[in-house]
Amino acid sequence: MEKKLQRINLQNIPNHIAIIMDGNGRWAKSKGMQRIFGHRNALTAIRETADTASDLGVKFLTLYAFSTENWNRPKLEVDALMSLLVTTLKKELPEFQRKNVRINAIGNLSSLPKNAQKVLANVIDATKNNTKITLSFALSYGSREEIVNAIKNISKKVVNNEIKIENINDKIINNHLYTFNLPDVDLMIRTSGEQRISNFLLWQIAYAELYFTDVLWPDYRKKHLYDAIIDYQNRERRFGKTSEQIETNE
Ligand code: IPE
Ligand code: IPE
Ligand code: MG
């Protein structure tokens, strides 16, 4: 493991990592257990990933925990996920404080159960001055819903003469997304072997590097994040320019 860490260039750590934490259900099934068992075992992976990211100097970590489409799952599973969210946030608050973690949430939060909204608001407020890393949970999050919501809010401001149509630009759109206080994603990781985006951060991943791994989320550990970052560091991010321009810093 130390060997792996030595291969990481600490001067080129992705500033914002987003993770589609997938495969809890299959992990549980492979052990002859109910899907919920997989969700419960996702917590160790979340803790270890957040700690590792923070130690490496990642400033923003965004985790896809529940999508707008996940509301269509069986009620039993949805209820279990919501109660897991509430108990975990309550339990982890002292740890967030000790580790200087700022908690943030993105998504259509008003659709969450009232007690989840309350606990979430409390944890966000209690950690708002923490500075080591911003850990964002995407909850009832869907990128299309986010964009629709942004368009509605921008349109209202146009109607009220607060924004001129000709002034609408990237920045204004950014400022109306749930991620208004987060930078663009540098590295997006998806576990469990699926290679799709599933309605996550469509706008924000415009130039993100994508990394897919077969590891099921409950098995995700420090070494897996190291692997993803090493892979990321071996890529050339050109942002539309040529390789020569990047090399000569033009
Ligand atoms: C990801 O694991 C967690 C959530 C979507 C809440 P899944 O529950 O999607 O697990 P699989 O994909 O069915 O294995
Ligand atoms: C995406 O996983 C959502 C989360 C990880 C929270 P899903 O398991 O819901 O995605 P699909 O249905 O396989 O695309
Ligand atoms: Mg899944």
Automatic annotation (TrEMBL):
Record: residues binding substrate: 23-27, 35, 39, 67-69, 71, 73, 190, 196-198
CDD domains the UniProt entry points to: Cis_IPPS
Gene3D superfamilies: Decaprenyl diphosphate synthase-like (3.40.1180.10)
Entry-linked SUPFAM superfamilies: Undecaprenyl diphosphate synthase
GO biological process, one term: polyprenol biosynthetic process
Cofactor: Mg(2+)
Cofactor note: Binds 2 magnesium ions per subunit.
InterPro entries in the record: UPP_synth-like, UPP_synth-like_CS, UPP_synth-like_sf
Record EC number: 2.5.1.-
GO molecular function: ditrans,polycis-undecaprenyl-diphosphate synthase [(2E,6E)-farnesyl-diphosphate specific] activity; magnesium ion binding; manganese ion binding
Positions annotated to bind Mg(2+): 22, 209
Main EC class the enzyme belongs to: transferase
PROSITE patterns documented for this protein: UPP_SYNTHASE
Active site feature: 22, 70 (proton acceptor)
Keywords for the protein's UniProt record, in alphabetical order: Magnesium, Metal-binding, Transferase
GO CC aspect terms: cytosol
Function: Catalyzes the condensation of isopentenyl diphosphate (IPP) with allylic pyrophosphates generating different type of terpenoids.
NCBIfam families, per the entry: PRK14830.1, uppS
The family this protein is said to belong to: Belongs to the UPP synthase family.
Name this polypeptide is given: Isoprenyl transferase
Organism phylogeny: Bacteria, Pseudomonadati, Bacteroidota, Flavobacteriia, Flavobacteriales
